[in-house]
Each structure stands twice: as structure tokens, then as C-alpha cells.
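Regression test case RT-17, inverse folding.

Input:
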């Protein structure tokens, strides 16, 4: 029952990827992500250059003038490599600010009988985005150690961790528009196993370049469907977890 509902939500979301509102959110998220990463890289390179200075005195070597260029170019290359790793979590977090548009597009297409949803204030959306980005980056940086220690299981650790985080974020976003933040957390707790499974379904394509940039859009749409499938099963006084 649970897997069938998840797959139904996923394929219905795939069928709506051509929606202009999906495309607009996707392009906006990618543009802001690139600007943020480029700005952060430029700022870091400038900081390294400022710390090192135009010339530095090294023991036994004396005064050198090339250390600034070496540090700047080295930090630029390092940040370029890190940006490949950071692109997906940063895009996921930034795009989450605009995913209410995706959820509304899904409801307009598949649930037109519903009334207007409760709009999430921009300040709350920005705060949630910053929190989500921090958790996502911190968790994935810590997971790098686990990838090294348990190398054969690295893909499963990656999928399990990011599936949990993505499922938690996107289900909450979809649910709180209709039932508020408190009730969204209750539903998330009750259906946490199915939400995690659906999140893993979103996390698997994160390993595929370019396709992974669509995951925030696809995730928001899938969890909007999932919320509308699960919420009727959970009257307000039922908060026991999934068996």
C-alpha cells in the first residue's frame, strides 16, 4: 500500500514536469545557486589574498612574492571542486524558498476542488531555507567520513541520509500549507517510514549529474501528492508512528 502510493505520487509528478511554473522555479533556483557559489568563491579568494598579502617572508627563503598567487589559485581550484559537491544541496535549499509555487501548481492540476492554501510568509520561508541548508551541508560533510570508513556502503549511506533530510523538508513544506507547522510535524512523525522511503526515491537521482538539479522540483511535487494521499488516513488525534 505504502510503496504503491509513493510510486503513484512520483509518476504523477514526472508527468507535470513540463508545467511552466515548475520550469520557472527550476531556472530561478539554479541562477541564484550559481550566483551564491560564484560570490562565495570570489569572496574566499579575496580573503586568502588579503591574509597572505602581496609578499611574505618565509624562514630560510626570505621574501617571496608568488605565495599570494599560489594561495589564490589553489583556493579557487579547491572551491571549484567543492562547488560540484555543494551544487545540489545549495540548489535544494535555495529552491525550497520557491517550492510553494510547485505545490500550488500540483494542487491546481490534480486537486482543483481545494480552497486557497495558507501562504508561508517570506521571512519564515527564508529562515527555513537557511536552517535546511545548514543541516544539509553539515550532515553531508560529516557523512564524508562515513563514506571513507564504510566505502562499499557509501551509496546507501548517501541515499539514506539525504532521503531522510529531503523527505523531512519537503513533506513539511507540503503539509504546513494546509494544516500548519504543528500538524505537519505530527503527520510527519506518524508516516515517517513512508516519508523516508519517498525521500530515498528522491535521493537516488542525486547521484546523476544534471538530473539531480531537478530533484527539488520533483520532490516538492511528489510530497504534495503524498500529503494529500496520507492526510485523510490520519485524523487529528492519531499521532502513533507507522508500524
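Golden output:
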Amino acid at each position: 500500500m505504502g510503496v504503491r502510493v509513493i510510486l503513484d505520487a512520483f509518476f504523477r509528478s514526472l508527468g507535470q514536469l513540463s508545467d511552466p511554473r515548475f520550469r520557472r522555479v527550476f531556472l530561478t533556483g539554479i541562477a541564484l545557486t550559481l550566483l551564491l557559489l560564484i560570490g562565495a568563491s570570489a569572496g574566499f579568494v579575496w580573503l586568502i589574498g588579503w591574509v597572505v598579502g602581496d609578499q611574505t617572508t618565509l624562514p630560510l627563503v626570505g621574501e617571496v612574492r608568488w605565495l599570494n598567487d599560489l594561495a589564490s589559485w589553489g583556493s579557487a581550484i579547491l572551491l571549484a571542486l567543492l562547488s560540484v559537491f555543494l551544487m545540489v544541496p545549495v540548489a535544494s535549499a535555495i529552491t525550497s524558498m520557491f517550492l510553494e509555487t510547485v505545490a500550488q501548481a500540483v494542487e491546481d492540476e490534480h486537486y482543483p476542488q481545494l480552497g486557497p492554501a495558507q501562504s508561508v510568509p517570506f521571512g519564515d520561508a527564508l529562515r527555513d531555507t537557511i536552517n535546511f541548508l545548514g543541516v544539509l551541508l553539515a550532515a553531508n560533510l560529516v557523512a564524508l567520513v562515513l563514506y571513507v570508513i564504510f566505502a562499499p556502503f557509501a551509496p546507501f549511506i548517501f541515499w539514506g541520509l539525504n532521503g531522510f533530510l529531503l523527505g523531512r523538508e519537503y513533506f513539511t513544506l507540503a503539509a504546513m500549507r494546509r494544516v500548519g507547522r504543528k500538524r505537519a510535524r505530527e503527520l510527519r512523525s506518524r508516516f515517517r517510514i513512508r516519508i523516508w522511503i519517498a525521500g530515498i526515491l528522491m535521493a537516488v537521482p542525486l547521484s546523476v549529474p544534471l538530473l539531480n538539479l531537478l530533484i527539488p522540483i520533483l520532490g516538492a511535487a511528489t510530497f504534495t501528492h503524498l500529503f494529500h494521499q496520507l492526510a485523510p488516513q490520519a485524523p487529528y488525534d492519531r499521532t502513533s508512528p507507522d508500524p
